[in-house]
Amino acid sequence: MSKLPNIPTSIFSVMSQLANEHGAINLSQGFPNFPEDERLLQISESIIRENIHQYTPMAGLPSLLEKIANQTLKQYDRKVITSTEILITAGATQGVFTAINTFVNQGDEVLILDPSYNSYEPSVLVAGGKSVRVSLNEDYTPNFNRIESAITSKTKMIVINNPHNPTGRIWTEQDFEALETILEKHPKILILADEVYEYITFSQPHISFNTRPKLVERTIIASSFGKSLHVTGWKVGYLIAPEKLMHEMKKVHQFLVFSVNSFSQHVISRYLDVVDFNEISKMYQRKRDLFQNLIKDSRFELMPCDGTYFQVVNYNAISNTNDVDFAKELIQKHGVASIPISVFYADQTDKHMLRFCFAKTDETLIAAAEKLCKL
C-alpha cells in the first residue's frame, strides 16, 4: 500500500508538458533560463580534473561548511558551529523531508500555511503525521488567530516559508513578534523555516529566523544554493539548526543520501569567495520591475511581490473561468504558461490568481508580456 496514494502528478509537470506541446513561453516552473555566472563556470572547468570526485564527509565538505558559517555570521550576525549545526543536503527539498521525517511521528500534527509549496504535505504523510492546513489572509499575510486556533496538544511542528512561494510576500517584524507570543505558550513546538529565497528580496529586508533569539533554539532553517546562485539543477542546499536537533537529523540524512554531490560542493565553496548576494538580489529586482512594467497596462492585476522570483496576478477583469482551466487556456490559446494558485491550497481555494516566474531572460519576459497584454 502506497504512503502517498492520493498525490497527483505535479502541476509543474502538467503545465510544463502543456507548454512544450503548444510551444508556449514557459513562466510556470521556478527555474532561470539565463546563463550561469561566467565565474562559476570557470571555477567548474578549472577543478574538474582535481581529485574531488569521491565522497565528501557525510555532513558536507568542510570548506563549504566554513563558508556557510561565515556567510551566516555576515548576513545575520549568528555564529554557527560548522561541525554540529550545519548539514549540506541534496537541495532544500531533501532538507525539508529530512527535518520532517526526523521529528514527526505517527499521529503528530504539522501546521502548514496555505497557499503552500507542494513538498511539505507529502513529507508529513510519509512520516505518518497529519497536515493541518491554515489559510493566510486575503493579502497573503499570516493570520495568527487562525494559527493559534489550529494548535493542539498533537502539534509537533509549524512550517513557515519566508520569502513565500507562491505569493512573494515577506514576514514583517510584527509578524515574528506575533508568532513569538503564541509559541511562548507552546515551548515544545518546532519550526521548520523554508528560507530558500532569502537572498531574493526587494522593497523590504528579509528577516531570518537566524536573527530571532526567542525562536532559534527550536528552529530548523532550510536554504538553497540552487535558488540563491541560480543553479537549481545542482540540487545543493543546507540546513542550519542547534546541535540537539541537527544530531538527530544527521542520522536520517546518513541513510537517505549519505553525502551530497562532491563536485558541486567544491565549486560552490570556491564560488562563495567571489559572489555578492546583494548583486543577485538587485538582478532579480530589475527583472521583477521589468516584468511588472511590461504588464502594468494589461488587464491582469499585479499582486505585491516583496521577494522570490514569482509574480502573482489576478485575472478577474479577463475571465470568470477557474484558475486551473484558465491557466491551461492561457497556454493553448495565448502561448504563455503559468501556475494556478489554487493548487497550493488543501481545499483548492480559487481567487482567480496565477503565478508567473520572472527568472527569465529579458527577451523571454518581453515576448511573454506582449502576449499577456493582448488578453
From TrEMBL:
GO cellular component: cytoplasm
Native source organism of the sequence: Flavobacterium terrigena
PANTHER family xrefs: FI04487P (PTHR43807)
This protein's record includes keyword Membrane: no
One term of GO molecular function: kynurenine-oxoglutarate transaminase activity
Keyword vocabulary terms for this entry: Aminotransferase, Pyridoxal phosphate, Transferase
Family: Belongs to the class-I pyridoxal-phosphate-dependent aminotransferase family.
Domain Aminotransferase class I/classII large span(s) in chain numbering: 25-371
Keyword Transit peptide: no
Protein name: Methionine aminotransferase
Superkingdom of this protein's organism: Bacteria
Cofactor(s) for this UniProt protein: pyridoxal 5'-phosphate
